[in-house]
Amino acid sequence: MSVHHESEPRIYRCGKIACGVITHATCALFTGFITALARPGNKAILLFNPHSSPVSKLKHKAKGRLHWLLQCLCAFCALLGLFVIFFNKNLNDKPHFVSWHGLLGLVTVAIVVCQSLAGLPLLWPRLVKGWSLGKLKRYHATSGLLTHLLGSFSVCLGLYSSWFTGSVSGFVWYLSLLCPITSALTVMSQVTNAYMARKRTQF
Fold this sequence. Notes:
Its EC number is 7.2.1.3. The chain has 203 residues and is an all-alpha fold. The protein has one domain (2-202): Four Helix Bundle (Hemerythrin (Met), subunit A) (Up-down Bundle). The chain has helices spanning 2-7, 10-33, 40-46, 60-91, 100-118, 120-123, 133-158, 162-167, 171-202. 21% of the residues are buried.
């Protein structure tokens, strides 16, 4: 892995670091901007970013446990948000899950919970016998990436809702749209590059 980093042009490495830092900052701002759209799951994935991880000095095992804790927080926030929305709809006598954002959001919440549970065998490999740790990591990373993309798309759809467009407009709306898109692209790059680099070292 270190050989791979050394062979990269310096400007490319600096670009990766800058993208990671910007993503951390925009996610933090986005979380502060609207709590309902908080993305602790995104922060959980970025813990493994080789260029901009806030806990880069920790061992991989410690990162894994911290990742799982943040992912559990993500699942909790998602379930809490779902409950609040469900309660609010009942309170105002409005129909449930009639928009694409609502339907996709419900599916995403269910998948996030499943993805969090699917991470348990990586913490305790004895739970799954007959599977190599490498294969489990690959499947977990791939499904995690797809889950993150689904969540990002759901957030983007939510930005088009009547409530959000009525509350936010102009430059701030475009900035809000940029946040999940930037986040999704950064995570996609991180996951694909990590496994492409591993494949290169294997051959």
